[in-house]
């Protein structure tokens, strides 16, 4: 018996979507319909596709780093017009009325933000479908303006990896001259290095891998600290004003807490997992702080995008076709990407 | 064979001290010599006596909650006069020149603060001896004024338990109407409840022991939350503006992190130990924070004492004689004290 393996192409995708009955709502009065050009590949996509967090609803259409052009606007939409370059990040809705929403922190909406995919669809019922798609319809409040001067493909990861690292740097007021550590050089970490540098900080890339040193410096790190080198770690003790911790899995925290100055904070943005035990004394002696941070609000995301326009900052990416997604997922898991995969959505359309 | 057990008395203590060659320096130009009237018993005393932290230097004379009257002053001392009611807390010296000292945070002195006992004695060499003693000589900058209107015995624990709980409440700006949790009703916790109440907060005592409820309310708690009761814990989720965590040993943190509001902080003041692993997601979703806090600076300690004078706040204590110290230690370890032992130093003198 012989088996013929056929490449999965656009027609197959269309047939699958039809069969799965994945519906997009028509463009309502407050909506923007977007022709998706590029979509970034986030580690969360993989967690959701694989149901790692035990909350996936199938069929899953992942993707919350969406770039595209406005195709159609509803009658109440004044901020956008057909053809505008726009983006959509991790959220497509929230209550807009709770104290978090009123403080422009929709990611902490007390009724729960609506995720761009795997969220509760308020319009059609069921759940939301993300950006691995030809188009999407999104409420105008959750559509962002992408500066026309930056690279469209590289802008996609700003919508998740970008805001996830920008928001803590701003919330904890990182400023010119601060000594800022960025732990982990992946999709998040490489954006953290770029932003901290652009904000005028002295940036130290903290990594286990000496072979990442050169890249880190190209991205904007002023120093590289190899966390496995005890002597070097000792030299940097009690010296950091702020540490952005992008490690995506549970890990030891004591060695990093030791790096913080008195009253300084290490913010976790990656490890949605149980962390290893840390020593209370590490926080008590030095009044040190650990915190978490989750993406950022819509207003702050627009501020970040505008900043990227002014400073010409985008993500370093590898562009792939839709058919290569499974291979890309494997490489994300192996940390084998510099530094974010972005899907060329033309490959789904043609 | 029969053994005669003889009570350990003042004469024995004197003989022991003489034999151990425990020396106090003469009162120098910048010094205050204090006749000790009362000294509180802190859990740290026990850790040091028993060398739990592997840094004890023997002979140990513990005690850093010292109350007494000024016996003698050096020629540069203008703030105190003979007979003044004064106190000494956990520190008797620091460099006075580093950025922490200049910010009135001597507890974080970059050269290391000098502990009231088991610290490095800058004057005589060797190590410092604490307040389980008839007198002590201390640099004027580390001597505090005790308001004459408050109970002298009950004031002793303010010098450690008091400032340890006061400082985080002030650093994190606890104010009228805030919902404040105090975890653990011991020497620290009972002061936390009193202070948070006096600052106008809505105080919730969080404890494993339902039988502590009545006492907690007498001390100033408006509500008692039994942490073993999952349903009640659920009702208080995401509702606290601030949590003061006085648990003195490693413990689970997730259930308490869940109680915090967005952007709220839980401060550890007791657990100088490895904590149990917590889930990164608990901090990330809600941008929550964990921090540590260590006693407080001299200026802040004086502010706390003045506040206690204005609000007539002291610690609830059990007064003991010096000879009962070993029994008291046993009871501290068993959490069987309401809420702090204080030694009547007359029992050492007579």
UniProtKB/TrEMBL annotation, chains A, B:
Xref: CDD domains: CAD1
Domain Enoyl reductase (ER), first and last residues per copy: 9-295
Source organism, top-level taxon: Bacteria
Keywords carried by this UniProt record: Metal-binding, Oxidoreductase, Zinc
Cofactor(s) the protein requires to work: Zn(2+)
Pfam families in the record: ADH_N (PF08240), ADH_zinc_N (PF00107)
GO molecular function, one term: alcohol dehydrogenase (NADP+) activity
Entry similarity comment: Belongs to the zinc-containing alcohol dehydrogenase family.
Name of the protein in question: Putative zinc-type alcohol dehydrogenase-like protein
Organism per entry: Gelidibacter algens
């Amino acid at each position: 018996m012989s088996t013929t393996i056929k490449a999965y192409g656009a027609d197959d995708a269309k047939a699958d979507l039809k069969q799965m009955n994945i519906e997009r709502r028509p463009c309502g009065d407050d909506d923007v319909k977007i022709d998706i050009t590029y979509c970034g590949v986030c580690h969360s996509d993989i967690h959701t596709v694989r149901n790692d967090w035990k909350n996936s609803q199938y069929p899953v259409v992942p993707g919350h780093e969406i770039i595209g052009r406005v195709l159609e606007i509803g009658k109440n939409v004044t901020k956008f017009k057909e053809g505008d370059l726009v983006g959509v990040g991790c959220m497509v809705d929230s209550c807009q009325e709770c104290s978090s929403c009123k403080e422009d922190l929709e990611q902490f909406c007390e009724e729960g933000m609506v995720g761009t995919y795997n969220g509760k669809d308020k319009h059609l019922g069921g759940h939301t479908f993300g950006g691995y798609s030809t188009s999407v319809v999104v409420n105008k409040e959750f559509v962002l303006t992408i500066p026309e001067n930056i690279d469209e493909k590289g802008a996609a990861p700003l919508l998740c990896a970008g805001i996830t690292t920008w928001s803590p740097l701003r919330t904890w007021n990182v400023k010119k001259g601060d000594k800022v550590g960025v732990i982990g050089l992946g999709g998040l970490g490489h954006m953290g290095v770029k932003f901290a540098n652009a904000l005028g900080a002295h940036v130290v890339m903290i990594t286990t891998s000496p072979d990442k040193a050169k890249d880190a410096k190209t991205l904007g790190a002023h120093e590289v600290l190899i966390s496995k080198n005890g002597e070097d770690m000792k030299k940097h003790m009690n010296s950091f004003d702020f540490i952005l911790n992008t490690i995506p899995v549970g890990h030891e925290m004591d060695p990093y807490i030791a790096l913080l100055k008195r009253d300084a904070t290490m913010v976790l943005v990656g490890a949605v997992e149980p962390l290893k035990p840390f020593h209370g004394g590490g926080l008590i002696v030095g009044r040190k702080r650990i915190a978490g941070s989750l993406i950022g609000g819509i207003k702050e995301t627009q501020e970040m995008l505008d900043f990227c326009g002014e400073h010409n900052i985008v993500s370093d990416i590898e562009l792939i076709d839709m058919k290569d997604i499974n291979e890309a997922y494997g490489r994300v898991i192996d940390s084998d990407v510099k530094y974010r995969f972005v899907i060329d959505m033309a490959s789904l359309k043609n």
